[in-house]
């Protein structure tokens, strides 16, 4: 699951793009939403990195 986490910002950005297109909003006007998506994705990634460090998780230790 963790290895698929890179899809989160891609899927959210595509969803936001299609939402903007469907409602006729220019991309320039919806740029703030893309920034929020990137910030949210960075926060989620940072959270998982901290949790992995706290639990000393190593992907090779299955």
Low-confidence stretches: none
Shape: elongated
Counting DSSP E segments of at least 2 residues, the number of strands comes to: 0
Mean pLDDT metric: 88
Main sheet: strands, sense, barrel: none
Number of helices: 2
**Structural classification:** mainly alpha
Overview of the structural elements:
With 62 residues, this protein is mainly alpha-helical. Helices cover 68% and strands 0% of the residues. It is built from two helices and no strands. α1 packs antiparallel against α2 (31-55). The longest helix has 25 residues, at 31-55. The protein is elongated and about 45 Å long. The chain starts with 6 loop residues before the first helix and ends in a 7-residue tail after the last helix. The mean pLDDT is 88.
What's the arrangement of secondary structure elements?
Layout: H1 7-23, H2 31-55
Helix pairs in contact: 1-2
What brief labels describe this structure?
single chain; 62 residues; mainly alpha; 2 helices; 68% helix; 0% strand; elongated
């Amino acid at each position: 699951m963790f290895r698929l986490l890179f899809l989160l910002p891609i899927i959210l950005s595509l969803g936001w793009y299609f939402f903007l297109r469907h409602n006729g909003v220019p991309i320039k006007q919806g740029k703030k939403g893309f920034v929020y998506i990137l910030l949210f994705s960075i926060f989620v990634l940072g959270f998982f990195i901290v949790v992995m460090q706290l639990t000393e998780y190593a992907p090779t230790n299955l």
